[in-house]
Structures are given as structure tokens and as C-alpha cells.
Amino acid sequence: MLKLKPKFDLYSDVVSDILRKEASVCRVKEYSGAVDTRILNIERDGGILYSWKGATGTTRIGKFDSNTKQNKLLYTFDKQVCVSSCSLNKEETLLAVSLAQNTRGEERLKPISKCLTLLIEIHPINNTKVLKAVDCRVKVQFLHSESDRRSVLESHLLLLTEDGYVDLYHVLLTRQEGYRMVMAYPERLSKAAERVVEDFCWLQWDGHTQRVYYLTHHVTHTQDKFLMQCVQFYPNHNCETVLEFPFELPANPFHTVNFVNLGFDHYHVERPEQELVRMKVFTNRIGSMYVCSSQHLKDKQELIYTVLLVHTGCSKTFRVSLGGDQKGTQRHPIFIPIGYHIVVYLQDYFLHLINTRQQEMLCHSLFLSGLDVDLGLQCQSANVTVLHAEEESSGSLLDLASGRIHTAELRPAFLLQILRSDTPSRCPSSKTDPQRLAALHCLLVYMGNDPNLELKIIEWLCDNVNAFESFDQIQEFILASLYRISYEKSLSLDKVLPYSSVLDKKEIPACLLEVPGVLCTTELHIEPVFKGKARSLQGFWSELQWNTEKTKYLDAIPNPRFRTSDIQADWDKLRSEKSPSSHKNHIEENTKKVLSMVDTWCLDKKLVPLFQEEDYQQRVLIGLTVDKLREHLNRHLPRLGKKKIDSLVVNYVAKLLELIRHMLESVWLKYKLGPHVLCFTQQGSPAEWSVLHFMFRILEATRGLCLPLPPGYHTLLAVFAVRCLPHHTFLQYIDHGFLQLTETFVSRLMKDLDNSDAKERLKFSILKRLPEPMDQRIYHMWDHPISSASISRDYVRTLLEKLNKNKGFAFTGRDKPGFRPEFLPLTYLAKILSDIEEQALNPFEEQENVDARFVEETALKQTLILLGFEEK
Predict the structure, then answer these.
(1) How confident is the model at residue 647, as a pLDDT?
(2) What angle do CA 289, 295, 296 make, to 5 degrees?
(3) For this UniProt entry, which residues form the secretion signal (predicted)?
(4) DSSP label at 372?
(5) pLDDT at 199
(6) Strand, coil or helix: what is 592?
């Protein structure tokens, strides 16, 4: 599931270098003594601090520079000591250490404290200042500002104690003899310490963002209450509480004060059975914050873990049964951030890839159990520490036992295997659909920028053309790929843009609402309170604040997500309008922007004959989609700005057309099709039948979503259909709306097909199905007596209509039932007589008593006289 890339190896990067240096000091070819090297801390710049036992039996502290891959000795103690915490300032002039005091043996009788905290000058090695000597654990951590100045004459040090308080020391430095950096007024350090946090029971340090997250505990008459707070340290080293919100935990969640991301204490290890709750906070630069926590219920043999999405104001709580057989001592999973996913991993039990961007439904997160969950770690995951930086897209894993650091990435080959496998977990298809759906979205959205990966997914679509039981994979491919181009711009787009067709189903399949092995409950969370400068800061805090406010707004309004199917009514209306209008001109301008962008992408991609003809209906739908999506985003996300929104929507629709072209090009190459497929005189091959089936599925998927197709798509589909289908089936597809007769297709068919009986009947059948303006143009392209007669009739009708217009007659006889316009001159004469008769005055109209017998005899007599049978 995960691909682990080696990033650091304590033995090859550090220990081997130490052994060479110790051998040089001892003047031996190879040093055979034990050096007992231990990682102490990892600073913001990636530098790794470590200690080892030298040849002389003393403890030394060094630094591995991750950029230069060089090791540097920082300080040597005059005896062997137990370093429980260590930190180095950015200028590498001061070293802070906490020593766990040895109280065994003879020293047990001496009144010494359990922890001694020192501040040491190391540029060069000079004075040592005792900061604290207490009977509780003390963590040390220097602040690292973003300033690149190397001549800074002050450093700032945090002391975090097990007694539940944090002090900030401002250490002034002075330069002596041109190069020596020493503390100024060291005797004033303790008095000038600033208390920044008090009464915490859990605390996490984030070195990359220079923040402290901590929990405080308040006992009321009815329950225990916990408050999560965040202190931000600014570049000028001032700090303030910028965020707070309540957090729910069980009673007495921590046996002792918990420190997270504050180095590695090899002399104080919590026993697993004493940890009721484990917590970690992750943030992302686009304004997301996650609080992950887990608690093990021993009596019920199940694990509960919660992911609180602070930026969306909701929490997801998952319950997983572990069964009766406990396979190890590990009681808590590890949380690994990978992009916008949170990997929850409990060795030998399960792996849950939680999709925090598409978290409305459980089926968009991948849950695996049993044999599928081996990460390939060479150790117990209980010994693994997760390292995370807000700027990085993935977390790193540190195995303290071996001293190795690996970068964790999702493995696309494994996700593709889930797609291709008929039964990923030996279950029925409906049981595996959630896994396929989650894997597909992860591949397309998070990893989809890889063209080779996208090509493999399209090949999978070709091999699995028929829709699955619970979702349409082509619709999911289209929407997820379109969502990918915009999801990094703003978190609020998650609730505004469509990313899955499953959400539009009238009735969502039951297999997508629940995943075997895991239960999920969603709860709304109290909105966080932003304090101090966080309300005006740019960057992460402004994004987080805007995301929480926008999410609250979008949750309160109906239908915030754009639904492409809502365009259908407007599209039908525009297609029926014959006369031009300003609105239609505006729609056409949108279409031109989209097609011009596609043209710039497709300069060297002319394999499939698309975008080579006018397609009025698709042009209208393209421009209308741009217009409606732009209107939707401007209404709900005005903060993005009109220019950015306009660029986003044009790019969005252009990407849709390019995506369909890419799908056709891929299947074109897969079946090795050539120009001969456009020839009407040859029967379609099995390969062309497969392409036709795939094109019909694309048509079905886009129609279901009311999405436009590239101009020329319907022509290409009709060409494949007339070559592959029997003629009567082809005509039925036209009558049922699956095929659309375009002028390009019909004109080519009339020219390319001969006038044999079967093909002539096909042509007549097609001509009968053409709309009136098109059939007149098509007749001019077919050399046939029927077309000549039709052209003659149209010509005479045009002349007579002109004559009628001049004489004031309206030639409307064609609209009358039973009218037969085979011989137009006779028809014209009959029309004139009919009109004259209607215009003539009826002499008997106002007479009530008329002798009908007399009228008949008179009329007959007059007729006989006119015909010459009688004389007057």
C-alpha cells in the first residue's frame, strides 16, 4: 500500500563516520568498541542531533546535516551522561540539553534532582549555564526563525516541563575577540523567563510552523472538559494564543503529561497499557487542520479513532473490531499524513486511508484488513514515530530502534491492482465496489498528474466498459479528473464542485454507505475561536479562518454543490431558439475561449478526428456550462476573484473536452486503428466494435451528467455505428436518440456509398429522418433521380412562393392534411382557385329562404352551356 523511500540511515550516515574517527583517535585500523548512537532530535532545517559514547567513555553530541550529508561534533561531556532532550539554535552557537540524573548506587545517597537542564556555549566551547534542576522531565527546544541572518545576537529557547508549564527564555549573545559567541548576562536568564503556557496535560510542538498545540483540563460538577489551544511564535519571537476550541476525551486520558514532536527520550518510555489516548495534530498550508486521536477499549476488543477536521467543523469517529486474539502489545495505530489523506495503520490488523477532502461518504476512503495491510516495516509499528512538515506532501517514518527514516508515499501499483482485481478481498462485486471507488479517486485526484498513470486507468476503463453495480466508473473518471485541476486552489471548492456522480443518485446503493469492518459516525463540532493576530494574518491562519467561515455558510444553504444535470433545461431552451440574441452571442464567446484553449493543447494531437467541424448543439452546451459554472462560483466563492474564477471555469470545461479526446486517443492506440476506420464501404472489425461500445459508454456517461462532448464526436460515433451495426439496428439507434445525424456524417455517407438496393434504402431511411433545413442541403450532394426531383420541386416552390408574395397569396396548402404536392403547377392552380373562392362574396349568405332545387338546376344548365353540350 505504501512505498517507503530511504531518507536517512543512522548506521551508514552517522555510525560508520564515527567509527572511522574513533579509530583515528585510538590510532587503530578499525575501531571495535560500541558507540551506542542514539537520535535525540530533528530540528526545523532537517538537521539530526544524536549522541554516542566515545572511546574515552564520555558522551558526545553531534549533528548530521541533511543537506551536505556531513557530520559535525558539537559537544563532549567529561563523563557518560543520559541525554533525555537536546536542541541546537539556528546559528549553532548554543546547545540546550536535559540530562536524566543517575540516582542508583552511591549517588542514591546524594540529594540530586532527577533532571538537570543546561545551556552550553559551543562557538567555541565555553561556559555552561544551569537553567533548571527539578524532579520532573524537562524538554528543550530552540525557536528557529525564518531569517537568514547569521549575525543574530539573540536566541530563544523553550523549556517544557512535566509539571505542565512552558517557559520562553530570551538569550542575549555578545561577540568577543571577533569570533567567540558568549551569553550576555547569563545570571539574568532565569529571572527573565516568560511563562507562555500553563496547566497542560498534552502538548505537541510543530517546528516547521513554530507552533505549540496543547490541551488543558478543567473539571466541572458533571464532567471533565478539555480545551485545545494553539500558541503561534512569530518571526520577531513574540507569541500569542491564536486558536482554541473544546475537545472531547474520556476521563483521565493521560497517565502522565504527554509530549509530541519534542525529541526522543531513550530513558523514559511509556508502557502501552498506560496510554489510554494517543493524539496528533496535522496542518496543511492551504488552511486545513486535523486532530487525530485514538483510544483502545480493552474490554470490548475494539479500537476507536477520531479525525477532527477543524476547518470543516465536523469529526469522523471510526470503530474497528480487533477480535479476541491480540497479536501484539500495540494498542494504538499510527497516523501518517500523505497529502490530504490520513493513513491510520495498526500493524497486523488494518489500514485505513481516510480521504479528508471527500469525506461525506465512507466509500471514498479505502479500508483494508488482513493480508493487504503490510507496510513493509522492518520493525513493530509501536516503535515508529511519524515526522511531518506542513510544507511537505507526505510524512516520514522514523524507526528509533534501527535509526532509519523513510518517506512514506502511496504506491500506485497497489491501487491499480485493486481496480483490476475481480475480487480484491474474495468478496462479491458489490462488496469490492467501495474499494475500487476509493482507489480510483486516490489515483485520479491525488496521483493523477502522472500521464502514464492516467493512461493505465483509461486502459482499465476500456477493459471494464460496463458500469459496476453501484457506480459508473466513466462518470467517476471524468468528475474526479476535473476536480483534480482545482482542488489545490481552495478547500471550499470541495463543497462547491462536483467530484463524484454517486452524490447525485436518487438512491445511493447500500454497499457504498457502509464498509465491512469499520463503523463511522459523523458529528458537528463547535466552531473554533480565532484570537489575536490570527484574525488579520495572511497565509495559513487566514486560509483556515476563511475555510471555517465558508464551510459554515455552505452547510447552511441548500444545494451548494454545482450540478451539471441542472443545465439540461437551459440547454433545451437555447437549442429551440432560432433567432440570434445577445445571450446566445455571449454563450458563443464562452465556447470560443474553451476551444481556443483546447487548440493550444492539441497542436500535435491529431490522431482522432475531433474538433474539425461545427457542432451547434455541443457548442451551445460548452458555452452554457462555462456560463453556469462561472455564475455558481461567483455566487458562493466571490473571494476567489472574477479573474481567477473565469480562468478556472474555462480551464475546467477545456479539460473535460481534452479528457474525452485523450480517452479516445488511448483506445485508438490500444486497438491500432488507422484512417481506414472512416471509410463507409468496409465492414467494421471486432476492434472497431470495441471502440464503438466504449464510445457509447462515454456518451451515456456524459448524457447522464449533461456534459458537453468535443465537436465531431457524434459524427465519429455515427461512422463507427454504420460500419458495425446492421442497418435496421442503426436506424433504431437514431430513432431512440442514441445516434445523432450530423451534416458531416450524412454528406459523406451520400457521397461514399453506392446506390445499390440495400444502401439506397439506407439513404432513403436517413433522408426521411433529417430535419427540413438539412435535407435540402443533402439532396444537392446525392446524384440520384429522387434527389433531382426534390431539387426541382424546391426550385418551383421557391418561384411560386415569390409570385404568391407579389400577388398577395399565402402558399400554405402544404400544411393541409391530404395535400399531395407531386405536380406543383397543378397544385398552384388549385391553390389560386381555392383562394379566389374564399375571397368571393356569397350571394346567398344573408338569404334565409333559398330554393336549393332551383339553384342546382341553374348551375347544371350553365355548366352544360359552357361545355358546349347545349346552346344558350
Answers:
(1) 92
(2) 150
(3) none
(4) G
(5) 93
(6) helix
- Predicted pLDDT at 148: 55
Give the H/E segment covering residue 512.
helix 510-513
Helical pair 616-636 and 582-601, crossing angle rounded to 10 deg: 100
Handedness of CA 323, 328, 333, 336 (dihedral sign): negative
811-835 burial string, b = 16+ CB within 10 Å, else e?
beeeeeeeeeeeebeebbeebeeeb
Q: For residue 865, give Cα distances in angstroms to 701, 861, 869.
A: 76, 6, 6
Q: What share of the chain is helix, strand, coil (3-state, %, to 5)?
A: 40, 25, 35
Amino acid letter for position 296: H
* Confidence band, pLDDT 50/70/90 cuts, at residue 787: low
Burial of residue 698 (CB within 10 Å: 0-12, 13-18, 19+) is: buried
Secondary structure class of 775 (helix, strand, coil): helix
CA gyration radius, the chain = 40
Three-state SS string across 254-285, please? Answer: CCCCEEECCCCCCCCCCCHHHCCEEEEEEEEC
Cβ-contact 309, 523 below 8 angstroms: no
* Residue range 350-388, pLDDT digits in tens: 999 999 988 888 999 999 987 667 776 766 766 789 987
Looking at the DSSP assignment, which residues form a beta bridge with residue 39? Answer: 50
The Cα 397–Cα 408 span in angstroms is 7
Provide the residue type at 770 as one letter. L
Cell of residue 90, nine digits: 539556528
β-bridge mates for residue 622, sequence order: none
Note the pLDDT of residue 327.
Answer: 61
> For residue 92, how far is the Cα from the chain centroid?
41
Summarised one tens digit per residue, pLDDT across range 300-310 is 788 999 999 99
CA 281 to chain centre: 21
Task: Kindly indicate the confidence band of residue 423, based on its pLDDT and cuts at 50, 70 and 90.
Answer: very low
- Count of Cβ atoms closer than 10 Å to residue 861 Cβ: 12
Q: How many CA atoms lie within 13 A of 351 on its CB side?
A: 20
Q: Is 387 helix (H, G, I), strand (E, B) or coil?
A: strand
- List the alpha helices (DSSP H) in 602-641: 616-636
H-run or E-run covering 523: strand 518-524
CA-based nearest residue to 162, from 107, 116, 108, 200: 200
CB 312 within 8 A of CB 527: no
Mean pLDDT (whole number) for 751-760: 82
DSSP state of 12: I
What is the rounded distance in angstroms from the CA atom of residue 542 to the CA atom of residue 311? 11
What's phi and psi for 384, nearest 5 deg? -100, 135
Strand partners, 133: 116
314/317 Cα distance (integer angstroms):
10
Amino acid 489: pLDDT: 73
| Eight-state DSSP code of residue 526 | P
The three cell numbers locating residue 465: 466498459
Helix axis angle for 642-670 and 451-463, nearest 10°, is 60
6-59 residue pLDDT tens: 999 999 999 999 888 877 766 666 776 678 899 999 999 999 999 998 777 889
pLDDT at position 674, please?
82
Q: Which residues pair with 118 in a beta bridge?
A: 97, 130
Strands (E), 184-221: 194-198, 200-206, 211-219
Angle in degrees, 0-180, between the axes of helices 616-636 and 642-670, rounded to the nearest 10: 140
**3-class DSSP state of 353:** strand
Residue 403 and residue 10 in contact, taking contact as beta carbons nearer than 8 Å: yes
d(CA 169, CA 130): 13
